[in-house]
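Researcher: I've got a protein sequence and the SMILES for pyridoxal-5'-phosphate. Could you write out the 3D structure of the bound complex as structure tokens? I'd like something to compare against our soaking experiments later this week.
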Amino acid sequence: MAINQAYNWIAPALRTIKRANWDRCPIEIHARQSNLIEVGDRTLVMFASNNYLDLADHPQLIAAAIAATQAYGTGSTGSRLVSGHLALHDQLEQGISQWKNTEAALVFSSGYLANLGVVAAITGARDLILADQYSHACLKQGARLAGAEIIYFHHNHLADLEQKLEKLRSQYRRCLIITEAIFSMDGDRASLAEIVQLAENFEAMVLVDEAHSSGILGDRGSGLVEHLGLQQPLIQTGTLSKALGSQGGYVAGSQELIDFCRNRAASWIYTTALSPGDTAAAIAALELIEAEPGRRQQLWQNITLLKSLLAQAQIPCLPTDSAIFGLNFGEISTNLAIAQALNQAGFFAPAIRPPTVPTARIRVTLNSAHRADQIGQLVDVLAASIRR
Ligand SMILES: *Cc1c(COP(=O)(O)O)cnc(C)c1O
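Model: Sure. Here is the predicted complex with pyridoxal-5'-phosphate in place.
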């Protein structure tokens, strides 16, 4: 029998990826407790997780996940519409809508699926999507899935957005503007109030992804919308897997929007409901975020400290307004070398490379459990390695 040659393209394609220094390979963590992780035979301080409020191994989340697993089992065993809809899902959705101050919310199996599902549900071939060029991959994929016209505006550039609205809006049925609240790779904030105003002027919808701002911004920690006090109708999405320390995603907004998504968001309809354990952990996280604002305050103290130490040491950092710091050292190879030096010194903060980001950088994220001495040591190692 002749050997099927159909798969022979994979090896040369992989070689091309490797030659460009774009090869990706996950690093195995075999134990973790708060910010201490074990990699190989070494213990490292984690400076790259999205566990902003240190909730991912909180005893209350673990206990809630165990109790829910004992009560309902490990899997939801069906999609929400068919057989997997649990009282826990309802409780979590009510918790999210109260937190977000919206009429309703819908929980998905991941933030990726939430964005994919809502964007594809609410726009179609006759519509225009104007997305910030730095929008997360799932937002871009959702826009492609929708079959809508997708135009990217320059990153957080209001004049460019306005110009595009002026030129294009009238040619389409609906228009959706997409932005992140805090951008996941740079850490800067969207000019959301101004974007919402532009949307009003041009009769456009706005979807804001609060993946990196929920739990971090606002008096109740619900995100940038709360922080800015925006009252206008909006489509708010986010994840349960970052500050909330669980797994899953959501969309929050008007009752009509949520009812519509329940009928039209394929990534919600045709997938198994979020597991009981993840759902219960997220409910526990919402309670802790409300009960313990000190976590958020500690996170902001850490952010202020790192910012000032980086400035003192003259370490190049992209403008940030969050727990995300993009330290850019130019060439991919330099970034990889500095990431390696950090690793040698006991810190985990990998280099992020194209195509995830336009320019290579070391992405450092802080959380509420980092201690001042750990942050200080991180900066010392960075300063020493750029001198070399
Ligand atoms: C992480 C992230 C997501 C995806 O959330 P998951 O729950 O991890 O799938 C979506 N949008 C942004 C901006 C993110 O950073």
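Model: The chain is about 45% helix and 15% strand. Residues 129 and 150 are 5 Å apart (CA to CA).
Researcher: Great, I'll pass this along to the crystallography team.
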